[in-house]
Amino acid sequence: LSQAPAKKTAVETEPRIRHLVSINDLSNDEIFSLFSEADRYLATLGDPVLGYRIASGLSIANGKIAASLFYEPSTRTRLSFETAMIRLGGQVITSADPQASSTSKGESLADTVRVVSNYADLIVLRHPRDGAARYASDFAHIPVINAGDGGHEHPTQTLCDLFTLTEEHKEFRNLNITISGDLKGSRTIHSLVYALARLGSKMRLLPAKGMELPANVERRLRNEFGGRTEADESAIGAWYITPDQPHQPALFTEPELPASSPVGDRVDAVYVTRYQKERHSDEGERDYPRVDKKFLKDPKYSKSSVLHPLPRVDELDTDLDTDRRAAYFRQAAYGVPVRMALIAMILGLDPAKRLRNFVGGFRDTGAIVIDQPEGAGLKCPNRNCISHDRSEKPHLRDKFTYVTYTPPVLRCFYCESDIDSFVIGDKRHRRIYTRQPKPATPRNLVCFTDEAQARQAGFSQA
Ligand code: NCD
After folding, report:
1. Which of 226, 228, 385, 434 has its CA at 20 to 30 Å from residue 101's CA atom?
2. 458 CB neighbour count, 10 Å cutoff
């Protein structure tokens, strides 16, 4: 009767957990596979009248639990994730009020995540700090999905946005999309522009004054995602970012994209965002782009789909709600099938469609990550980064990815803020590097803000 257990393969004994922190954790192939799953759910479980609405469920997630950890307000993201889990046949546990949890007693995110990892099979995390989701994934042995981390990213909103565009019969290649509003503070925009650049779309940016795309994000679009700006004399304050080469970063194995054609006049989609008041300190009057019937009267918008991640305040006129171009309520409805597909794939509910099995899936970039000795040297310059959260101090190590731009930059491992000026030292000889560090020895490296800080720590020029 007693049978020796079958020997486990390396893959079984060391399952690679896939987290979704940045939209760049998914390859284009994976995004499209996820959309076919979402489409399948709509076809089989959709409302016969309202085709964008999921109306019944499955039992494939029977026995599985998703934990919603929401440290910031949310309506759509949390409720659609929870609906998605329930429609798959799973269950949810929710902590959406920091005052009602041990956070109010001073518990760190690290400890909460360690504990919840033993209760649930999946964590959906929203947090006011940039980089909180990547940080949380360091302490979780179950997948962590980023449901918005400060002003950094909101990858699942991007999946809903892209899915909406496909359902609106838009092609990503050469798609002309206008993106307006608070491009600085909107995490949804940061994930969206990376994805659109990777998919070969052309973005015309219409930021409110002083709310331009962060320099970091813009530089990544150029350096890593083939972005290029095109002059646009007709629109003051607007600029295009178009891909000038197939996007082939080391992370993805995609089929070649054809070269892009010049920006035409027709606008396929308008993406509107609200002023992110919780991410800015000024409360004064501001000049903010407003999308209404008058704005859309220009013939170039006659076939534009209008998207908004919602909530809207007054940047998007309610008069548009009955306009055939308004796609934003369908966009919110698609949150359910898209998140069902994501949960099913990240949990591997269908073994043939596990996220980590996909060809062209996530591969290690091979970039050096420098894990700082406790309390030493360089700190992330972004004060809203999770690395500056006092409750996390005992658990946290400052970590930086060494990005091989010319000249190289250091990127905070958590919030992805770039640091242009720094020096790197070798702990073994207490010497400052003058050239690129050797990839084989990142554990010996330590970063400093400048030479003076390195000298103070006992390092000297090689
Ligand atoms: C967005 C967010 O939280 O970043 N909302 C959402 O998830 N749909 C956009 C916003 O709050 O403006």
Report:
1. 385
2. 8
How far, in Å, from the CA of 292 to the mean position of ligand 1? 20
- Mutation pick for ligand 1 pocket among 77, 126, 211 (CB with most ligand atoms within 8 Å): 77
In the chain (462 residues long), the average pLDDT of successive 10-residue segments reads: 46 66 92 96 97 98 98 95 98 91 88 98 98 97 97 98 97 94 97 94 92 93 84 53 53 36 74 94 81 95 97 96 98 98 96 76 72 88 97 94 91 96 92 76 89 94 80
Query: Under 8 Å CB-to-CB from 97, ≥6 apart: which residues?
Result: none
Cα separation of 423 and 433, whole Å? 7
Residue 242 in contact with ligand 1 by CB distance below 6 A: no
Measured from the Cβ of residue 322, the count of other Cβ atoms closer than 10 Å reads 7
Q: Which atom of ligand 1 is nearest to the CA of 147?
A: 7
Q: How far apart are CA 409 and CA 237, in angstroms?
A: 28
Per DSSP, what are the bridge partners of residue 389? none
Q: Coil, strand or helix: which one is 372?
A: coil
E-strand spans in 413-459? 418-419, 423-426, 431-432, 445-448
CB contact at 8 A, 146 and 154: yes
DSSP code of 434?
Answer: S
For residue 303 and ligand 1, the question of a CB distance below 6 A is answered with no
Long-range own/partner contacts, residues 438-442 (CB < 8 A, 24 or more apart): 439/366, 439/368, 442/368, 442/369, 442/370, 442/371, 442/402
Q: Is the CB of 80 under 6 A from ligand 1?
A: no
Ligand 1: nearest atom to the Cα of 309: 8
Check pocket membership of 148 for ligand 1, CB cut-off 6 A.
yes
The Å distance, Cα 155 to ligand 1 centre, comes to 11
Q: Is 72 helix (H, G, I), strand (E, B) or coil?
A: coil
C-beta 126 within 6 A of ligand 1: no
